[in-house]
Amino acid sequence: MLVLEKLRQYAGASRVALVNREKRLTYRQLEERSGAFAAWLLDHLGEDRSPVVIYGEKETDFLCCMLGALKSGRAYVPIDRSVPRERAAMILEAVQPRVAVDFGGLGAQGSALVLDAVSLEEILSAPARPIPSDCWVQGQDTAYLLFTSGSTGAPKGVVVTAANLEAFCRGVLPWYAGQEGGVVLNQVSYSFDVSGCAVYAGLSCGMTLFCVDKQMTREFRELFQALGDSGLTLWVSTPSFAELCAQSRQFDAALLPGVRQFLFCGEVLTHTLCEELAVRFPGARVVNTYGPTEATVLVTAVEVTEAMRRSERSIPIGAPIAGVQLRLEGEEGGAGELVILGPSVGPGYFGRPDLTARSFFTDPATGLRGYRTGDLCFEREDLYYYQGRADNQLKLDGFRVEVEDVEANLQKLPNVSRAAVVPVWSGGKVQYLAAFLLLKEPDGLSSLKRAIQLKKQAAAYLPDYMIPRKLFAVESFPLNVNGKVDKKALARRLEVEGR
Amino acid sequence: MAMTMEDRIIAILSEQCGAEDGEIGGDTELFEEGLLDSFGVIQLLVSLEEAFGIALEISDLSRSEISTPMKIAALLREAQR
């Protein structure tokens, strides 16, 4: 794997691989600590190649564990701490790991050996032993499993192989020209594949990963102090995170003089943000990209020009990166479902051949792996434009959310018999979710007290970003002609009640 | 009777969170109760600027400084000076 080869290559110099608050990790330390973890896995698990679960956030050793698993020939499963224990347990139940790394909050899990920070430190600081590259994950071996929102209320695992990651790196690295030795923002959670822009592409060109954790994004004063000292040259995030930062007038080239490029992925990029960045960072270019987890991080890219910022059309998602082929199927009124073909398309969903068969295929004509995205797009002058979803999947601040997943989990709450969730749109994106609930029995609470109580209960089953901001108790649901809950009528009710 | 600054802040917050009269008090812990998150803070700062003509920079604030309506009022009073 390119990233592991590069890691070995850069380990000789005293180059910094990662900055996490006051901690620094050099490429040499990353090489040694990931090697020590790989050696321990090889010694303790032998032929057993079950994936390694890693539960945490942006801890310095999270990266050592990820790369260590890959060096030992094992996949890793990153789970962000924002995922509650209950939901994390469902993932462990599906994966059946022999080893799980717990940076705090996971606790005992079935028969898995759970390593806490203390026992992990003992393993990672053991004397280094070179791990031959034929032990590493390669070709069709799984490199990571990412669990995303599934429509049944249980998370769904996307399988990504070593070959997929190699294809991603080949395709994306031309967009990293001039970034060698620079500093890349590492804010996106490791359980969200946009983080691969820092981990796989960034480390492959010798960059320093600058970590921003949730505590910093909660305390803006801390965040801006950190950014000011970061030396960032490449900004990678969802548009939402940049929009949040742009709420402060201090977010400009004076704060971040080194930033030469913004790379956005994960959700719709708006004209407004592009205009703001053009004014505040006149020397930086803005690159928009697009890609589903199933086809490894991103598959299209484009530099946003002044003409695009001024155009009536939405900001394009771009043209296919090297190695990727795109086509539109079932075109109607100019737009069709985007289908991705190429070596970055993964094998499918973990343990779910039924779901895999529905969206993945191997193209008989070319032998290429294909994935039907469910995203409606159109093409103009060799650029693709995103138009919306063919199903109920939403992007909320860059997170992928299935409405049915939220509903199924709200129905687990003690006093909720049925839940209907609707997105609230504004400015071309989903601002938040609202839930309408049928209660089992009257609770005698005021609407605010009820909402507070239900949100606290929901936190046991859903990560923060999936918990609806507004919750309303209703006597009954409006039904449409098919006898289903009429979501459009609920959305209209919200417009009235929201004022 | 004229509304105090604190009352006006509570009114703004109540509208934003869909709370009824008397549900949010001067010492309600806004973050702990799940009434405010990062995006909520931004919405609040915009409303405060509209109501009082005082622009608070989000990058100058910590959560503990704006965790209750009383603290927000104290901060605004200081900014007014």
Report Rg of chain B: 12 Å
Instruction: Report the CATH topology name of the largest domain in chain A.
Output: Rossmann fold
CATH class of the largest domain in chain A: Alpha Beta
Strand tally of chain B: 0
- Count of runs of 4 or more consecutive helical residues of chain A: 16
Tell me the distance between the termini of chain A. Answer: 54 Å
Q: Which word captures the global form of chain A?
A: globular
In short:
The complex is a heterodimer of chains A (499) and B (81). Chain A has 499 residues and is an alpha/beta fold.
Tell me the layout of helices and strands.
The complex is a heterodimer of chains A (499) and B (81).
Chain A: H1 2-10, E1 16-20, E2 23-26, H2 27-45, E3 52-56, H3 60-71, E4 76-80, H4 85-95, E5 99-102, E6 113-115, H5 117-124, E7 142-148, E8 156-161, H6 162-172, E9 183-186, H7 196-204, E10 208-211, H8 214-218, H9 220-228, E11 234-237, H10 239-246, E12 261-264, H11 271-280, E13 285-290, E14 300-303, H12 306-310, E15 319-320, E16 325-332, E17 335-341, E18 348-349, H13 353-359, E19 360-362, E20 369-380, E21 383-389, E22 393-396, E23 399-402, H14 403-410, E24 416-426, E25 429-439, H15 447-458, E26 470-474, H16 487-497
Parallel strand pairs in A: 1-10, 3-4, 3-5, 5-6, 9-10, 11-12, 12-13, 25-26
Antiparallel strand pairs in A: 1-2, 7-8, 8-18, 13-14, 14-15, 16-17, 17-20, 19-20, 20-21, 22-23, 24-25
Chain B: H1 5-17, H2 38-52, H3 69-80
Helix pairs in contact in B: 1-2, 1-3
